[in-house]
Amino acid sequence: MKNTYNFMIKTTTILTLILCHVPPVLAKEDQEITSPTQAEDQFHLAMHYKKNDDNKQDLEKAFRWMEEAADQGHAEAQHQLGLMYDRGKGVAKNEKKSFYWMQKAADQGIAAAQFDMSLIYQEGIIFPKNPEKAFEWCQKAADQGYPNAEAVLGDMYYDGEGTPKNSEKAFYWYQKAADQDYPDAKVSLGYMYNKGEGTPKNSEKAFYWYQKAADKGIPEAQSNLGNMYFIGEGTPKNPEKALYWLKKAADQGNIIATYLLGKQYMAISNEKEAVHWYQKAADKGLASAAFYLALMYNNGRGVAQNPEKAFYWYQKAADHNIPEAEFNLGLMYNLGRAVPKDLKKAYFWYQKAAEHGYVSAQVNVGLQYLLGIETNRNLEKAFYWYQKAADQGNEDAETRFGYMYQLGYGTPKDLEKAKYWYQKAADQDYASGKYALGQLIYDTGKTNPKNLAEAIKWIKQAAYQGNEAAECFLGALYERGEGVPKNLEQAIYWLQRSAQQGNALAACNLGLIYYQGEGVPKNLEQAAYWFKKSAEQNFAGADFCLGMMTAHDDIPSYPHTMDESLRWYQKAQLHVHISMTEVTPPSPSMIPFLQEIYQSLDDLPPLKFTE
Fold first, then answer.
1. Model confidence over 162-180: pLDDT tens digits?
2. Separation of alpha carbons 96 and 116, rounded Å
3. 8 A C-beta contact, residue 425 and residue 433
4. 474 domain-assigned
5. Which of 269, 270, 293, 609 could lock 278 by a disulfide, CB 3.0 to 4.6 Å apart?
6. Are 403 and 410 in contact (CB under 8 A)?
7. Residue 67: which domain range?
């Protein structure tokens, strides 16, 4: 059985010895032992000598009498003789002879021998691995009620080794072994109940069986029990008991418990202790611990901030395919943090994380293909990765995926599908999704008062949540009185909120309002201030306006020279061709004014705003 943090460890059992009573044929300890002829007596005599495991002479005598009994067909002696050959006890180690006698005993129905035969085929001892034969022998031993075999048979059904996967049968055999007080089976049974595999999910029963196994000292069970106390599953949350059981498991070297101690200490705000346990688990090679240790170094929590160590541990975790670590490694290359900035390496790691299902990475890779960053522009691949992220319910990806349908990027244009994805994002209270939905409804049905009201509803919601594009759009609606009463005060309020968040179009529109003096006193200083704010973001319309103002208007704060005016016009000419797909189009009432300014300039192409 395989798992991650529920830590079900596959049952492995070493070959075991059969303990037998001392036979009547044995004399007192200080007397010479007689030479029996009956196989049963020979077997017991051999077992008597065999218990002196450190005495070579006794082991040789044990082998002699065990062989005598085995040659007479004594099944248990045949099994023990196989074990002696396997371990080189009383005789030279010989795997082929070990197998020979094991099979003889197994054929006579000795359950322990049948189980050992299963292990031989399962582990590939002597012969190549043969899962089917391993299953066959394990089944024979389990059918006789041998608990080790019952537990391993459960593993085989769970993992589909030598037999088709069957969680129900796995559960059945784990239960059989657990009922015989076999500790490892109790851990497996707890896992099945916890995951709802082979049986309905039952956290309380999972807790019960983990407790049973933990009380027997099984570290995996102690770790799982501590985790259940930690998260409050199957039992009320109890940080003290969580720490108790996790420490019990960690003291036995359980790496998962060591890692979980780090998480538990983080939960109780002991960051220094959390770093200690993350470090211990990371040093033992646990990738998840390496990732969290990297986070601690990256953010300076519980330890001095150290980007270089953060990078080192992100790399360790990323090498084990931890998607969050791959993504963060990409970010460090993207930002040039602890390493030289390298977009190629950044997107290499984003791609890895995206392939491992990490949503933020899928969005970044989608953007990479959309814009052609360190690769050829590929709208179909951009569409593919945005869909991957959107299908996981990520609201940002849903919005971006909607844009792809709205613009017909990588797929035929489909406004209904665009609206569907915007709506999904909006239903998750995502401001950008609400704005996109409102703008789409506005663009496709603003002539219908009902549609206009619906559009404004979503745009307002997005604006109230601080979406700068929605604030800009709402300001433009108030400026021209479309769908809302015309209100210059509200227009300035919303445009200013948007501009203060860095929206270049909002800043330019504010500048136009103050420059025209429509509804407010004309204020060239304020107009120039907002045009400059917009121009700092390379917004061509603001460049034009500043060029015009420095040529024709007397503004104390700005040089009134033709050279300065020409400088702004040249900037405008440069920036007009830069894509502004991420910027909200200007309000329609502003476009004629900007167009008039621009078209009055000689030798420059006409102004076009990207919609």
1. 999 999 999 999 999 999 9
2. 14
3. yes
4. no
5. 293
6. no
7. 39-108
